[in-house]
Design brief:
The longest helix is centred in the middle third of the chain and has 18 residues. The chain is globular. Helices cover 53% and strands 14% of the residues. Helix 16 packs antiparallel against helix 17. It is of the alpha/beta class and 336 residues long. The chain has a single domain, classed as TIM Barrel (Alpha-Beta Barrel), CATH 3.20.20. It contains 17 helices and 8 strands. The protein has an 8-stranded parallel sheet with strand order 1-2-3-4-5-6-7-8. The structure holds adenine and zinc ion.
């Protein structure tokens, strides 16, 4: 490990954009398939990895959704979540906000209760044993109907204490933020924080970003790299202090590059940009590796790396006292 890689590894970190279902590693796919008597179309872990030749968002999503077929029981969701939290803890991630996609499971006949109880139990165990703190963000699948999203929102209400906010993911094409305006207004009224994916280089990316801030009034934007295409838009996002959760290695899979140059420009413009992993089980890079890739590509300084980590802790959906505690641990680390 070079000294800057060691610096990245040891730095107190915060992850704000990771899909729990996207942390499903090929090894665990095999284990869960065996436990649940499910036949996989692949014979070996290498065969599975070799099939991960995504070229765009839809081709990734096909593999992502079909991979979930091995997740059936509460203990499967527990094992998936705990494995990620162990990995995150080993990278010095102190706090993480975790996306989950309940509709990808309820539409297969698995109850919302099964999904969230397994995840929640892993969060509690990991916090007690490892000390890593996490919160959940429930995502709606934007390529399904607004009615299904609203029904899912209502189904989540008995578990409101376990969910910090709601997000919007899946295929963005022809599925604008406005399609879910009523769902997000209700989520806000229920006390949830709001975020939405604005994936990179989508048809109408800039229009969707404006809808997110003007019509939905999101608290955060996932990806959002195309905000730089419109100077008024990036200035407005900066003025509001809205955080952007950029995922470089994921971007390299589904667009033509890591968008590391965009991260440089956002840092230079004082935008609250953060680096995250998205679907590390599929893209092969957890948070630490994403930071290493960007550092190598554009030569981030230690000060830049600290700023990225600071941005993430500041953008966390936590009380200010908790954020201040993490920020002072970050300061102590970089002062040492
Ligand atoms: N679901 C899981 N990962 C996603 C991504 N990168 N974009 C949209 N939906 C997703
Ligand atoms: Zn994502």
């Amino acid at each position: 490990m070079t000294s800057i890689e060691q610096f990245i590894h040891d730095m107190p970190k915060c992850e704000l954009h990771v899909h729990l279902e996207g942390t499903l590693e090929p090894e665990m796919k095999f284990d869960l398939a065996a436990r649940n008597n499910i036949a996989l179309a692949y014979r070996t872990v290498e065969d599975i990895r070799a099939s991960y030749g995504f070229t765009d968002l839809p081709s990734f999503l096909d593999v992502y959704y079909s991979g979930m077929s091995v997740l059936l029981k509460e203990e499967d969701f527990y094992d998936l979540t705990y494995a990620y939290l162990k990995r995150a803890n080993s990278e010095n991630i102190l706090y993480a906000e975790l996306f989950f996609d309940p509709q990808a499971h309820t539409s297969r006949g698995i109850s919302f209760d099964t999904v969230i109880r397994g995840i929640r139990r892993a969060q509690e165990t990991a916090e007690n044993i490892l000390g890593i703190r996490t919160q959940l963000i429930m995502c709606f699948l934007r390529d399904l109907s607004a009615g299904f999203a609203m029904a899912t929102l209502l189904e989540s209400l008995p578990y409101k204490g376990w969910i910090a906010g709601v997000g919007l993911d899946s295929d963005e094409k022809d599925n604008p933020p406005l399609k879910f305006q009523a769902v997000f207004a209700r989520a806000r009224a229920e006390g949830y924080k709001l975020t939405m994916h604005c994936d990179v280089n989508q048809q109408d990316s800039v229009k969707h970003l404006w809808q997110c801030i003007d019509e939905i009034a999101v608290d955060r934007i996932d990806h959002g790299v195309n905000s730089l295409d419109d100077p008024k838009l990036s200035a407005e996002i900066g003025r509001r202090g809205l955080a952007l959760t950029v995922c470089p290695v994921s971007n390299a899979f589904v667009t033509e590059g890591t968008q590391a140059g965009a991260i440089r420009r956002m840092l230079d413009q004082g935008m609250r940009v953060t680096v995250n992993s998205d679907d590390p089980g599929y893209f092969g890079a957890y948070l630490e590796e994403n930071l290493v890739v960007v550092q190598k590509e554009i030569g981030l300084s230690r000060e830049d790396l600290k700023q990225l980590s600071r941005n993430a802790f500041e953008a966390a959906w936590l009380p200010q006292t908790a954020k201040d505690d993490y920020l002072s641990r970050l300061d102590a680390y970089t002062a040492a």
